[in-house]
Amino acid sequence: MTDWHGYAGTILHFDLTSGSAERLPLSEELARSFVGGRGLGARLLHSHSEPGSDPLAPEAPLVFAAGPLTGTRAPTSGRFSLTGLSPATGTILDTNCGGALGVRLKAAGYDALVVTGAASEPSVLEVGEDGPALRPAGELAGLGVREATARLLDGHGRTSAAVIGGAGERLVKLATIMVDGKRALGRGGMGAVMGSKRLKAVVASGARRPSVARPEDLDFFLYEVSKMLKANPVTSRALPEFGTATLVGVLGKRGVMPASNFRRAAHTSAEVSALSGERLAEEHLVRRSACWGCPIACGRQTRTSRGEGHGPEYETIWALGANLGLTDLEAVVELNYLCNEHGLDTISTGGTLACAIELAEDGAPLRVRAGDFESLAAAVVRLATRSGDDGELLAEGSRALAEAFGRPEAAMQVKGLELPAYDPRAMQGQGLGYATSNRGGCHLRGNMLGFEVLGTPKLVDAGAVEGKAGLLIVAQHLGAALDSLSLCKFTAFALSEEHYSRLYSAVTGFDLSSQDLLLAGERIWNLERLFNLREGFTCADDRLPTRLLEEPNAAGEVVRLEPMLAEYYRFRGWTADGVPSAGKLRRLGLGEYGPSAAGPADEGRSGT
Ligand code: SF4
Fold this sequence. Notes:
The chain has 26 helices and 19 strands. Helix 2 (37-48) crosses helix 20 (468-485), helix 2 (37-48) runs parallel beside helix 22 (514-534) and helix 12 (314-320) runs parallel beside helix 14. The protein binds iron/sulfur cluster. Iron/sulfur cluster is lined by residues 76, 98, 239, 290-291, 294, 296-299, 488, 490.
């Protein structure tokens, strides 16, 4: 029997169909191999799902998982992961979030909550120190995120709520889950998975604090990392003062911020300054906000002439601004509030509307116009409610929309997930990152911004393809490790894997070197890849939209994907077809999950 520190030591499985709960002990092997959060989620998804499952079928699992550092004194440790099958992509999809749900889940006594089945009526799953309870959602069904969240939070701060809006209830493929009304489990349509289970909300409450194995070591390391965060200009100045919107100016000047569905780059002049983080701070900021336990506080509480709300992030300003030809910042903030209220991913909503604008300009009967707030806001509502003559189509996302009009190249997506706010023609390594991301077009599964633009930890030539595979692989492993610990990726501007491994060892008492931490990241990445292979994905899905490969940007660049991809597979120890070799899997301890293996041992169910 393990004496747990950091971890709660228990996984809760709740079946919504039967209303039954099972408590399963976390095994030390599972904790050491997959860390927690995203890694634990991937491992539990493997053992609780069958190949070929429909993401919206009752049996599809949703795994909420805290990390070993969640709820400790480590900075930014109020995070957790949600893992499931994405209705937008069909891939494994994990999404990492602030808000306090992970902290409260662990404080209730659980490292992870696995939800399967479907309730017979709209319901709320409550998880507390006395165990779980499924209650009818009553009048919460049909409510927007703000009101539903307010009714669920009890005001004493020891409760947290993950809530879907109308979009999730209507199984919109772009639906998000909002946590405490401020933070989003944004990408891949996980709100629709909750909706398919008739789960309006998951509420967690508890007051237990995780125990720490070596408190004196932790004190010392916290002193060290706190100094590093204060000394770094990104974590001590740029993010606190301007939020992630600080990137508008930086990326606009470098030609990295795309516009109008990637048909051009946002200009450095009026367009960029109209949408800048400085302007957001001057005209709309009410106060900064922070996820639980975060000293950086990059969140924005903002106001417009019509009301107050949370955000927007850089990606949202791009997706609902430059990408839609909109340079009225107040209008962008309003569109962000609208998405939050309906429970929509702002990146995918912006990507879908940008695609719709392009199609409409070519004659498709879609009621959206570039730069026209009224038509865009109305389209967001039709998309979220599947209403009007084009709402059903918009609700399926850009890939289905573009295919419906015979123009698949107009959807700027990878594996069905709309691309975020970085034009890879100006950042070659980012293009490789999009193509190889296990959850589709994504900037958080190996972000090359540090290497290719900001110079953290070092600056490399953004236009070169040589050497990008190796750098990206390290970034992918570190990202997987951070999502599993669970800490915020923004700390990586100031901290290294050495800091993270020390914090982990001090909290859990499990000695873990920085190399071991990256190895855990590699194990998790490969496990996710194996999951996608199991679901029928191949190297043919590691692709980019043809626009990025064939239509040059203003500097005459396209993404030169093929040489980077070949190097990437080779460096990973995968075959030329992108399949992890048997030797690689053996070294990672993943032999049982390989393409020819019968399947994983069922640890999550057997409780070993
Ligand atoms: S830096 Fe921002 S996103 Fe990260 S934990 Fe802090 S407030 Fe949350």
